[in-house]
C-alpha cells in the first residue's frame, strides 16, 4: 500500500481524504445547529420565520448574507423528539399555483420528507406528527405520521413570493412547529467554530467528539466502510500531540484543495453551465453530501429544484466584470419552457456568493420580469457592469467592477425531465468580443 507523509498512519492519501470529507459532512450540520440555536429567541421545536429578501429600487442595500434566494420566504426549525414525545408540524392550505414545500432533513442533512401536494397528495396540508422511528407515541387525531431516523431533525418551509410579498409572508406565518411535551434533548456536538475558508481537520477526529457526531445514523450505507478509516485517524491523532498539526497541514494542502475541486465540478459543464444533477437524495454519494452541506446546506431534491451555476463564458474563460456578455434564449427555449414551476437567474460575486451591489438594486431576472422580446419572440439578456444605452433595464444583469469574478445561478423549480437529465442547459454567455 502506498504510504503517506503522515508517519505511522497506515492509510493512503486518498483514504485520509475520504475519511475527512465523510465526517466533515456531519460536522457541517452540527455547526449549523450550533449557529442557529445561538440566535436569541431560537429554540428546538419553534419555527423561526425569516423575513423576505426584497430586491428592487425600494429595497435599499443588497442583503449581506451568502447566496440569498429572492424567490421564496423561508421558515426553519430544529426539531427534537424522543420515544414518548413527537413534534407537530402544521402546514396550511396553499392556493393552487403557489409553490410551497416543508422539507424535513435528518442530522446528516439527508431528506426525510417533503410535504406538499406532489409528495403527499393524500394529505398536502394539515397536521404532521414527527416521530422517532420505532416509537409508539399517542398522536393527535388526523395527524399524518412521519418517522425521523434519530431524535433531531431540521424543518425548512418555503413559500413562493410570486408578486405579492405580503401574501407570501401571511402564508409563511401559518406554518408552525410545536412539541407535544418536553422531550429529552441531547446537547449539540461540541465542535469548535470554523469557517468554510478554514475547515478543521484533527479536531474532528477527537474520539469523544467523533463518537457523539456519529451517533446520528447515516442512511448512506457507507458507515461500515468508513469506520475503520475514521478509527485509524482518530487513534493516530490521539497518539502524539504533533500528529494533530501534521493532519491539519495535510488536509489544508491536500484534502481541502481536492474537495474544493469536487465542489466546483459536480457535473460536466455544458455551454459553460453545470448542474446539481438529477438526485432526489444523496444515496451513497457522501462526497456530494458534504459538498451540498458545504456550499448550500439544506439542499433539496431534484424533483423540487435543480440549480445550474455558471462556470465559464462561451470561450471557456471564467467571466469577470468589465466585459459585456449576451445570452440569447430562442423562442420556446426559455427557462420557463422547461419547468412546471418557475425560474430565476441571479448574479453573484465569486467566490463570496454575495449579491452584486448596484445603483438599480437589480440582482436577477425571472419569470416575473417584463423582458423586452426579440423580433422572433425570444429574448436576450445582457450582463454588464454598466448598462449599455440600447439595452432595456429589465434585460440587464449588473456585474461587479472590472476584472472581478462573478457567477450566475439559474434556479429551476419543478424542473422537467430534460433539465433533470441534463439534456437541456442554459445557452452560453457570450462576450461581446466573441460576437
Description:
With 435 residues, this protein is α+β, with helices and mostly antiparallel strands. It has seven helices and 17 strands. It has a five-stranded antiparallel sheet with strand order 1-2-8-4-5. A four-stranded mixed sheet has the order 7-6-3-9, with no helix packed on it. The protein is globular. The N and C termini lie far apart (53 Å).
Reconstruct the topology from this structure.
Layout: H1 13-37, E1 48-49, E2 72-80, E3 87-91, E4 100-105, E5 111-115, E6 126-132, E7 144-148, E8 152-160, H2 165-172, E9 176-179, H3 207-214, H4 223-239, H5 241-263, H6 286-296, E10 305-309, E11 325-329, E12 343-349, E13 364-366, E14 379-384, E15 396-398, E16 406-413, H7 417-421, E17 430-431
Parallel strand pairs: 6-7, 14-15
Antiparallel strand pairs: 1-2, 2-8, 3-6, 3-9, 4-5, 4-8, 10-16, 11-14, 11-17, 12-13, 12-16
Helix pairs in contact: 1-4, 1-5, 1-6, 4-5, 5-6
Overview features:
435 residues
Would you tell me the overall average pLDDT? 92
Q: What is the β-strand count? A: 17
| Ends distance | 53 Å
| Shape label | globular
The profile of the biggest β sheet is: 5 strands, antiparallel
Q: What is Rg?
A: 23 Å
- Determine the number of helices (DSSP H or I, runs of at least 4 residues): 7
Enumerate the strands of the largest sheet in spatial order, edge to edge or round the barrel: 1-2-8-4-5
pLDDT < 50 stretches: 56-60
Approximately how much helix is present in the residues?
A: 10-25%
Measured by DSSP, the beta-strand proportion falls in 15-25%
Structural class: alpha+beta
Give the helices and strands as they follow along the chain: HEEEEEEEEHEHHHHEEEEEEEHE
Amino acid at each position: 500500500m502506498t504510504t503517506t507523509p503522515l508517519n505511522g498512519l497506515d492509510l493512503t492519501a486518498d483514504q485520509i481524504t475520504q475519511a475527512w470529507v465523510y465526517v466533515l459532512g456531519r460536522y457541517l450540520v452540527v455547526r449549523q445547529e450550533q449557529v442557529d440555536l445561538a440566535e436569541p429567541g431560537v429554540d428546538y421545536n419553534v419555527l423561526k420565520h425569516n423575513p423576505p429578501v426584497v430586491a428592487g429600487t425600494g429595497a435599499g442595500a443588497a442583503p449581506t448574507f451568502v447566496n440569498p434566494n429572492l424567490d421564496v420566504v423561508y421558515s426553519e426549525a430544529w426539531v427534537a423528539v424522543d420515544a414518548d414525545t413527537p413534534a407537530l408540524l402544521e402546514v396550511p392550505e396553499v392556493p393552487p399555483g403557489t409553490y410551497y414545500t416543508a422539507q424535513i432533513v435528518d442530522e446528516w442533512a439527508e431528506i426525510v420528507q417533503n410535504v406538499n401536494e406532489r409528495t403527499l397528495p393524500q394529505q398536502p396540508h394539515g397536521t404532521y406528527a414527527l416521530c422517532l422511528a420505532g416509537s409508539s407515541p399517542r398522536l393527535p387525531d388526523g395527524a399524518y405520521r412521519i418517522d425521523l431516523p434519530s431524535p433531531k431533525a431540521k424543518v425548512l418551509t418555503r413559500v413562493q413570493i410570486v408578486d405579492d410579498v405580503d401574501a407570501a409572508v401571511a402564508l409563511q406565518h401559518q406554518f408552525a412547529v410545536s412539541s407535544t411535551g418536553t422531550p429529552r434533548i441531547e446537547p449539540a456536538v461540541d465542535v469548535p467554530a470554523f469557517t468554510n475558508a478554514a475547515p478543521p481537520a484533527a479536531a474532528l477526529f477527537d474520539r469523544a467528539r467523533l463518537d457523539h457526531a456519529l451517533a446520528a445514523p447515516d442512511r448512506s450505507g457507507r458507515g461500515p466502510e468508513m469506520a475503520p478509516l475514521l478509527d485509524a485517524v482518530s487513534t493516530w491523532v490521539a497518539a502524539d500531540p504533533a500528529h494533530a498539526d501534521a493532519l491539519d497541514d495535510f488536509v489544508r494542502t491536500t484534502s481541502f484543495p481536492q474537495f474544493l475541486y469536487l465542489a466546483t465540478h459536480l457535473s460536466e459543464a455544458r455551454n459553460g453551465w453545470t448542474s446539481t444533477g438529477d438526485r432526489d437524495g444523496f444515496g451513497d454519494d457522501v462526497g456530494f453530501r458534504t459538498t451540498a452541506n458545504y456550499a448550500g446546506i439544506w439542499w433539496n431534491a431534484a424533483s423540487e429544484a435543480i440549480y445550474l451555476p455558471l462556470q465559464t463564458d462561451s470561450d471557456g474563460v471564467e467571466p469577470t466584470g468589465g466585459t459585456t456578455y449576451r445570452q440569447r434564449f430562442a423562442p420556446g427555449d426559455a427557462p420557463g419552457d422547461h419547468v412546471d414551476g418557475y425560474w430565476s437567474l441571479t448574479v453573484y460575486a465569486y467566490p463570496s456568493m454575495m449579491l452584486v451591489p448596484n445603483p438599480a438594486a437589480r440582482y436577477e431576472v425571472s419569470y416575473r420580469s417584463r423582458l423586452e422580446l426579440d423580433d422572433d419572440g425570444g429574448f436576450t439578456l445582457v450582463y454588464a457592469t454598466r448598462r449599455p444605452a440600447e439595452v432595456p433595464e429589465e434585460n440587464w444583469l449588473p456585474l461587479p467592477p472590472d476584472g472581478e469574478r462573478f457567477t450566475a445561478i439559474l434556479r429551476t423549480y419543478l424542473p422537467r425531465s430534460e433539465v433533470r437529465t441534463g439534456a437541456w442547459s442554459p445557452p452560453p454567455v457570450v462576450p461581446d468580443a466573441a460576437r
